[in-house]
Write a structure and sequence with these properties.
The complex is a heterodimer of chains A (76) and B (271). Chain A is mainly α and 76 residues long. Chain A is 88% helix and 0% strand. Chain A is built from four helices and no strands. In chain A, helix 1 runs antiparallel to helix 4 (60-75) and helix 2 runs antiparallel to helix 3 (44-58). Chain A starts with a helix and ends with a helix. Chain B is mainly alpha-helical and 271 residues long. Chain B has one domain. Chain B contains eight helices and four strands. Chain B has helices at 20-41, 49-69, 72-94, 123-154, 158-168, 174-222, 228-258, 262-270, and strands at residues 9-13, 16-19, 105-108, 111-114. In chain B, the strands form two sheets. In chain B, strands 1-2 form a two-stranded antiparallel sheet. A two-stranded antiparallel sheet of chain B has the order 3-4. In chain B, a hairpin with a 2-residue loop joins strand 3 (105-108) and strand 4 (111-114). Chain B is globular and about 80 Å long. Classes of the chains: A mainly alpha (76), B mainly alpha (271). Chain A binds chain B through residues 46, 49, 52-53, 55-57, 59-60, 63-64, 66-67, 70, 74, and chain B through 5, 64, 67-68, 199-200, 203-204, 207, 210-211, 241, 244-245, 248-249, 252.
Chain lengths: 76, 271
C-alpha cells in the first residue's frame, strides 16, 4: 500500500476507535446528571459545572486519539 | 484547502517571528486590560450598565470558585489566576466568531496568509497556559505537604516500612508484602498521572479549537453558507464550554493539591 494512503486510513481508525469510549462515558455522565437534576431541580446550578468538568475528564482518551491522529497526519 | 498546525508568520522583529495568533493574542490582551482599566477608573457607588455586567459576572464566578475550593481565604488567592485564564480563553475563542475576520488576508514574503487565526488553535500558547497551571498545582502541593511529604506521595515506602517492622518482630505477612509493593507501584503511576495532565489539559483545549476550525473550513468547502451553520453553533457551544473546562480543571487540580488527604484527617479524628 502507498504510505500516504496508509497514513490517512490510520488517522481515521485512530480517531474513530478513540471516540467510542468518550462517547459512551459522556452519555452516561449526561444521563446521570439529568436524572439528578430531574430529582432535585434546585441543585442544577451545582450539578452542571461538575457535569462539564467530569465530561472533560471522560473526553481525555478521545483527545489522546486526536493527538495520535494529528501526529500521524502532520508529523510522520 | 490548507490546514497547518503551526501559525503563519506575519513579520519578524529582529529574529523574533510575529505569528498571526501571537498578534491576535496581544490585541485581545490589550482589549481586556483596557476594559479592566475602564471599569476600574469609573467605579461608582451607583453602578452603570458596564459596571453592573462586570460585577454580576465577577460575583457569580467568585461564588463558584469559593463553592469548589471551600474556603474564602483560598478562594481569594486562587481566583485571579483561574478567572484570568477563563476570561482570556473565552474571549480568544469567541473572537473566532467576529464576522468577516476570516476574509482578511495580507501579502507577506511567505505568500498570502490570513491575518486572523484562532488564538487557542496555536499549540504554543495553550501549552504555556497548561505549564503555568500544572506548575502552580505542584508548587501548592509542595507548600501544603512540605517537600518530603510531596516526594513521599510519589515514592510511597510506608507499606514496605510496615512489612519490615513485622519481619523484625519475627512475623512474615504476605498480604503486607503485596500491599507495600502495590502502594509503591501506585505512587510511581501517580508520577505518570501528573505528567499526563500536561498533555490532556493542553490538547483538550487545543484539539477542540483546532478541530472546530478545521471542521467549519471543511464544511464551508463542501457546501457554503448552510452546511457550516449547525457546526458553527456547536463550535460556539464548545468555545464557551472549553474555556470553562480549562479553568475549572485548573481550579480542581489546585483544590486537590491544597487539601490534606481526607483519609488521614478521618484517621486522626477516629484516634
Amino acid at each position: 500500500m502507498d504510505p500516504e494512503a496508509a497514513k490517512l486510513i490510520a488517522a481515521g481508525i485512530a480517531v474513530g476507535f478513540g471516540a467510542i469510549g468518550p462517547g459512551i462515558g459522556e452519555g452516561i455522565i449526561a444521563g446521570r446528571a439529568l436524572a439528578a437534576i430531574g430529582r432535585n431541580p434546585e441543585a442544577s446550578n451545582k450539578i452542571m459545572p461538575f457535569m462539564f468538568a467530569t465530561m472533560a475528564i471522560a473526553e481525555s482518551t478521545g483527545i489522546y486519539a486526536l493527538v495520535i491522529a494529528l501526529l500521524i497526519l502532520f508529523v510522520f | 484547502m490548507e490546514i497547518s498546525l503551526s501559525p503563519e508568520i506575519l513579520f519578524t522583529i529582529g529574529s523574533f517571528p510575529v505569528t498571526n495568533s501571537f498578534f491576535w493574542s496581544v490585541i485581545l490582551s490589550l482589549f481586556l486590560i483596557g476594559l479592566t482599566l475602564l471599569v476600574r477608573t469609573r467605579m461608582k457607588k451607583i453602578p452603570g450598565v458596564l459596571q453592573n455586567i462586570v460585577e454580576m459576572f465577577l460575583e457569580g464566578a467568585y461564588g463558584f470558585v469559593q463553592s469548589v475550593i471551600g474556603s474564602e481565604k483560598k478562594a481569594k488567592k486562587v481566583f485571579p489566576l483561574v478567572f484570568t485564564m477563563f476570561i482570556f480563553t473565552l474571549f480568544a475563542n469567541l473572537a473566532t466568531y467576529i464576522p468577516g475576520q476570516a476574509a482578511v488576508d495580507i501579502k507577506t514574503a511567505g505568500g498570502v496568509i490570513p491575518l486572523f487565526r484562532a488564538v487557542m488553535a496555536d499549540y504554543s500558547l495553550v501549552f504555556m497556559m497548561t505549564i503555568i497551571s500544572v506548575l502552580t498545582t505542584q508548587i501548592i502541593a509542595i507548600i501544603v505537604h512540605g517537600p518530603f511529604g510531596y516526594i513521599g506521595k510519589f515514592i510511597n515506602l510506608g507499606g514496605i516500612k510496615d512489612l519490615f517492622k513485622e519481619i523484625l518482630k519475627g512475623k512474615f505477612k504476605p498480604a503486607l508484602l503485596a500491599q507495600g509493593f502495590l502502594d509503591l507501584f501506585l505512587g510511581i503511576m501517580d508520577v505518570i498521572g501528573e505528567l499526563a495532565k500536561v498533555i490532556s489539559l493542553s490538547f483538550r483545549l487545543f484539539g477542540n479549537m483546532f478541530a472546530g476550525e478545521v471542521l467549519s473550513a471543511v464544511m464551508l468547502f463542501l457546501f457554503p453558507f448552510f452546511a457550516p451553520l449547525p457546526f458553527m453553533f456547536l463550535g460556539l457551544l464548545t468555545a464557551v464550554v472549553q474555556a470553562f473546562v480549562f479553568s475549572v480543571l485548573t481550579l480542581i487540580f489546585i483544590t486537590m493539591a491544597s487539601e490534606i488527604e481526607e483519609d488521614k484527617l478521618a484517621e486522626e479524628a477516629t484516634i
